[in-house]
Records
---
Amino acid sequence: MILVFKITFPITDPILIFALVLFIILIFPTLFKKLRLPEIIGIILAGVAVGPNGFNLLSQDVGLSIFSQTGLLYLMFLAGLEINVREFVKNKIPSITFGILTFAFPFVFTGLLFFYVFKLSFIASLLISSMVASHTLVAYPIVGRFGINRNRVINVIVGGTVIADTIALLILAVVSESAKGELDHIFWLRFVGYFLFFLLLVFIIIPRLSKWFFKNYDGESGTEYIFVLAMVFLSAVIAEYAHIEPIIGAFFAGLALSRHIPHTSPLMNRIEFIGNTIFIPFFLITVGMLADLKILTHSFPLLLIIIALILVVVFSKYISAFIT
């Protein structure tokens, strides 16, 4: 009996896709750890290699997109969950300061660069400035691995990140609606209404519901974990309808649940284990799949833009941190 395996690229067999991703998660972090390089870089580079702009082994299909979105939400949720709320409140002034500065400096410098140097339109410059001014906590798993995620500086950075991202994403929402021609009084009324409902959900409904749930279902590990995921995605969905990015909703869900999930509890260990071993690596792989390194050699003007962006981001973010 002869078995013939016929594989087309990109791979469409869901079992084979999942197996390939699991082997990437298994091999590349270990390899880069041996090389004394960040494991995250290994996973992202693996995503570049297997993506449509690499060897075209994988494509951004629905399954991978779901895992990718889940990984990003999980990353922000873990950041909120790890924060000591009392420390967060105590450090609110430096967090707000850092958040405003780490948004304002990149936003202004990038806007001036693209409007006056690269001659883009005002709306295009505004759009790119908002994207550059925001940042994600992609290195947060490294911080967690070193055990310093409850450090005061980390609290300030995470708080500032949420503030900067919220401002940037609100501007993106306004620009997006403006491009559609829907920026009228109905948009603002809907936005305010959804935003108020989002705040009600995060700061009143979720904490009270969580208190009741953990009191009545204490010890039912599987049910507790599903409840936590349900609250995260509910908060993300409401945030999305409020024209706030779902990652902000996931972060605030983490803040709301942090009082009810002890850091040394089995539930916390389960949340961190599943997130760091499955969901977040999936997100990092899909980040790599978006990259097209060939354009670095095919387009010199684009290479100049990339270099200019890197210099502006590093300089402006450093100045923000230094002033804070």
---
Amino acid sequence: PFYESGKIEKLPMSERDVEPVMRLLSDIQPHQIYVAADLADPHGTHRKCTDAVLAAINEFKNARPDNPCLWLKDCRVWMYRGAWAEWDVADIEMCVPMSPEELREKRNAILRHQSQMESAPFLGNDERLFWQRAEDRNRDTARQYDELGLACYEAMEAFVEYRF
């Protein structure tokens, strides 16, 4: 619901945002959850989405602290970065290689998101479009892994685990 402001600036996140996330998590009972870690993104949307997911997880944990949801015990929360910055290689805990076709699919997915069609606000002088920064970031991660002597890929998406 916070996203439905009709404006660039979104509404504050509330319990109304956490409830549908809780229903979804309860229905799916995932083993992995992926959340954005760009918590200072220009529109604040990434932070609010991540906060809603983490609040839902806390609700599950606090509802029955003596007997937590079984699926939650085996669930990992993975944080990814957007186009603004990448994790330091020493901090990366999981890295997923991408082929040229998969990188193109990622670009197309970004371009389907209307707010990413034009230049996105960025703190600095970087004039590249969001999808260009994201591709360059993924390619640079793959280059760093290659320089470390690991397998060479077109691009790599890096993750750090959020421990709850």
---
Amino acid sequence: MKKRNKMNCRMHSRTLCSLALAAVCAASLALTGCSASTSDAGTGGTVVRVNAAQTADTAQAASPSDTVTVTSKGSVYAVPDLAELRFGVRTQAETAAEAQSDNSSGVASVIKALKDKGVSEDNIQTTWYDVSPQYDWNTGNGDTITGYSVSTSLSVKGVAIKEAGSLISACTEAGANEFNGVSYSCSQYAAIYSEAQQKAVEASKEKASVLAAAAGRSLGPVRSITEGWQDTTYEANMKTMAAMDAGKGAGPESSAADFMPGEAEITANVTVTYELK
């Protein structure tokens, strides 16, 4: 009985060792990725196979292709055809109430003159209003208030360049005694900017081709395009343009002031990634 138990124990131990050996071989083959076959008579011929070529193809497909990334700018020059004018009305009086009343009257006259020239209320904006005490600095009594000053600034958008002189003359006659500057915009900004974008992409291809050739490679297809920061300085407000169109012909053009807007540079910036071949 004892001999039989010892024989059973030895057979059981051999079986466990064979199974353990097969498991170790299978794990080793999976890690190394090599094709192999192992067998053991005591386990009935366990076989483990790994396709090395298939594993290499999968790893290669997962890795990203070589790329080159460039940032470029495209520019288009255009002559602005719209202006934004900034007027001011400044009044002074002994009391704040009187100065405010005079100022309100002057601003109302200027707004009426703008409307008479065909400017819509939507294009007229109050951008500044200030009430300030005035002091006697000449006699040394700097803490003595001698009166009050009231200032109101108006912005008028979407003015056609050819009508700007007439508009300024009319506002000056109506009571505007300050002129705070002018800025320009293009009515066809969207189309001009699109052209600048196209030039930016074309420029990116030229830059990327030079880099690829320097590396002994050639340029492949585009992987990605990212638009950069857009300067909208010369972008015209479409609502403003519509309101100005509705008021065209409201008054004659004037040669009282000539505006020379010059050329505006409208730019587009892009970052493009290309594949390398």
